[in-house]
Design goal:
Shape: extended
Radius of gyration: 31 Å
Low-confidence stretches: 49-80
Helix content: 40-55%
Distance between the termini: 49 Å
Mean pLDDT: 80
Structural class: alpha/beta
């Protein structure tokens, strides 16, 4: 470079030029002719391409904004992943979604995931029979009423209400919220207009709602009223929300400990989400200490009958409302107990945003395993169909003996029996399909999902930290 500088300054190039008495301090750096013009030209071309891409605007969008369009899905490289959530989006588009589409997982189990499903805030769902304090519990945490809240001793909340953060206080009808691309509720359209008319979103500016979204549910009724009066699949909706939620609170009243048949079906629909369930014995200051001890024992006995698990469910005891604790009934020991329990429950709620990232990965892995098993089942049913004659009879025979076919799949691929779907529900959906149109098992697609679970997700966790840490 010094020789180039000296040559441009007019010195004669000789083999001993650098060792001569030339003053190198005053020599200007070498100049490349035409470099400035080339850089200017490149700058202009890059500006033009930015304007074309953004419609004249220079505002940059998130790298994951267009991942859910088929054209751009293959162009996303691992270097554009900026967080764990963006990494999960990329893996879903490239490896899991093709398997879901090929074997119609969205028709049988769960709708395809969208961008908003990954970006949604953590959700807490409240379940219980009527007048157990679900709406009051949300009001207690927010220190104010949310738009459209109704509180009373009778069954007041007649709809599913999602309480979330928004710029102003308003209620948005269910049909409107289900079609908004930035909301994670598009999957609820499968339950029809009868449900969407009983669903709404309540928005309000609140610091707590910037981190957590609450789902207030109608009180579970007893007997035939549940099935005859509700024109939609109540347990199906609960199951859909349970898969999306990070925490499920089951609220009980000391005076309403009986778990009705419908409530038992609702709790059974939470199968697979046991780690999210917390039990709250609300309004505990309405009984004295001796009665509370008996009520707690009766509640644990009832839950043991319904949940069918050897582990003891965590139960929080307290009075979660804005009224001071009734010391006349609870006594000083009861008041201290309620305060400790309330602190424990609030700590559980505060930890939700921090655990949300881990929960999202957990749900993603759980979904990937479910998709794999679904693909094995559909591939097996396709393989069992005859090539030419007697297809209708063979299909009906497979549907009738579905349990045996599940057992064959389990033995062939060494799969855990607990991961298989409900036989009756699967049989009901299968009856509307022609097995001959199913796809054969594609080992390469299964291998791609195995590689994702074995290598891609662990690498993702190594490279990126939890954004809430």
């Amino acid at each position: 470079m010094q020789l180039v500088s000296l040559a441009q300054a007019g010195h004669e190039i000789k083999h001993d030029l650098l060792s001569s008495d030339v003053d190198l301090k005053d020599v200007k750096p070498p100049v490349m002719e035409g470099l400035d013009a080339l850089l200017e030209k490149k700058k202009r071309s890059s500006k033009t391409s930015d304007n074309d891409l953004n419609g004249g605007s220079l505002v940059k969008t998130s790298p994951s904004a267009n991942w859910f369009s088929s054209k751009s899905a293959k162009k996303v490289s691992s270097s554009s992943v900026t967080s764990i959530i963006d990494g999960l989006k990329r893996l879903y588009i490239q490896k899991l979604k093709p398997l879901e589409v090929t074997y119609r997982f969205n028709d049988f189990v769960s709708p395809l995931l969208t961008n908003s499903d990954f970006d949604a805030k953590p959700m807490v769902m409240l379940l219980g029979q009527y007048s157990t304090g679900k709406t009051t519990f949300i009001k207690h945490l927010l220190n104010c009423n949310y738009p459209g809240a109704h509180i009373g001793p009778e069954p007041t909340t007649d709809r599913f209400v999602v309480v979330m953060s928004g710029p102003d206080e308003r209620s948005i009808p269910g049909n409107t919220i289900a079609v908004q691309a930035d909301m994670p509720f598009s999957g609820l359209t499968t339950f029809g207009t009868a449900f969407l008319s009983k669903f709404e979103c309540s928005q309000m500016p609140h610091p707590l709602l910037e981190h957590i979204t609450f789902v207030d549910t109608p009180g579970v009724l007893s007997g035939e009223k549940q099935r005859t009066q509700r024109a939609y699949d109540f347990t199906g909706v609960i199951s859909w929300f349970a898969a999306k939620c990070d925490l499920i609170l089951l609220l009980f009243d000391p005076h309403k400990l009986d778990i009705s048949d419908e409530f038992k079906r609702v709790i059974s629909s939470l199968r697979g989400h046991d780690d999210k369930i917390r039990v709250v014995l609300n309004k505990a200051d309405q009984v004295d200490t001796q009665q509370l001890m008996r009520v707690y024992g009766a509640l644990m006995w009832s839950l043991g009958k319904v949940l069918n698990t050897p582990e003891v469910m965590r139960v929080y005891i307290g009075s979660f409302n804005d009224i001071p604790v009734n010391e006349a009934a609870a006594g000083p020991i009861g008041k201290e107990l309620f305060e400790k329990e309330q602190d424990n429950l609030l700590s559980d709620l505060k930890a939700i945003p921090k655990k949300a990232c881990d929960r999202r990965i957990n749900e993603f892995v759980k979904r990937a395993r479910a998709v794999k098993i679904h693909a094995y089942i559909i591939g097996h049913l396709k393989k069992a169909m005859p090539a030419m004659m007697g297809k209708t009879k063979a299909q009906q025979k497979l549907i009738d003996k579905l349990e045996e076919e599940f057992a064959k799949v389990q033995r062939e691929f060494h799969l855990p029996p607990g991961d298989f779907p409900n036989v009756e529900q699967f049989r009901e959906i299968l009856s509307g399909y022609n097995f001959d149109k199913f796809e054969k098992l594609k080992p390469k697609m299964i291998q791609a999902v195995d590689d994702m679970l074995g290598y891609d997700i662990p690498d993702l966790l190594k490279n990126f930290r939890n954004p809430y840490d």
